[in-house]
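Two proteins follow. First one:
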Amino acid sequence: MTTATATATAIGTFTVRPLDPVEDAPVLHRWVTHPKAAFWMMQEARLHDVEREYMAIAASDHHDAFLGLLDGEPVFLMERYDPRYVELVGLYEPRPGDVGMHFLVAPSDTPVHGFTRAVITSVMEHLFADPATERVVVEPDVANTAVHALNEAVGFVSVEEIQKPEKKALLSFCTREQFAKAVAA
């Protein structure tokens, strides 16, 4: 699914569009090298490293990247991947309809209460807008307690710690039903 989706919130309207690896690289570079993005593991990346990474994702049949906008301004990055082929190969038993996800909120000097939760809600709505998506899979670093709490707030259930080449991760799942129940609460 490459079409844009929109989510209206009290904060504003979030839209999601396919990422342009070259045009969007400068803004992504600022985000992924910011100290608040330590768990993204690109702190030392140069602009061409970011371009190369997202060009590889754009060329993949199993991995996509999207730019999230709030009222037209870039505010988050979202990646969607097929865990049968990317990130989690051999680390768990994927089910039909599983979709892997990463997201990164742009750093801000003026935090807005509820902003990150609104972002992840928008991300999940975008993923579940595809009727083939039955369950979203995430594998954040075990030390990233802030994202664990955020994931739980939108319906993710932690299953187990797994060892990936680059980190010890907390494998978590969220079904369409778990998400709907969490956002209705």
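Second one, unrelated to the first:
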Amino acid sequence: MADIAELTALIEPEVKALGFDLVRVRLFGSGDDHTLQIMAENPKTKQLVIEDCATISRRLSDVLDEADPIEEAYRLEVSSPGIDRPLTRLHDFQEWAGHEAKIAATELVEGRKSFRGVLNGVEGEDILFADAKAGDVRIPFALVHDAKLLLTDKLISATMPLSSDGADEFETEE
């Protein structure tokens, strides 16, 4: 499989050039079924619309075809991180402070690897977290294996809705 750091170094400047922020690059699958997943967001809305995904996909298809960094055949998937988004950058933990999240660490932090609770921001390279069971903990960002927001009413109301222009024009077959 291709190196994620190399893929990110190839992909991120292209996404930035289009005015978007890269959230995550993931390559997964096995056998003959591999997917290169690119999550990006508009820095103003923290989301993407389908036209944004298409624009990023076209740009990356050309770059990836030219550089050919992945030996296996793969499917390119470009998407918005969604409401219950992954937290992949240190500033994500600050930006979404006050919201519920799950964090999995690569090593024990205060005797635990799994945390569920409320983000309290960032101090230096540490995530400040109010875990439902362990109380207040500092989780070094370098030890975060996986983290994501949890879907709550508070998160839904804090997430800026995208335009629904044209939604009433949708026709169904009867």
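SUMMARY FIELD: The longest strand covers residues 112-123. Residues 50-67 form the longest helix (18 residues).
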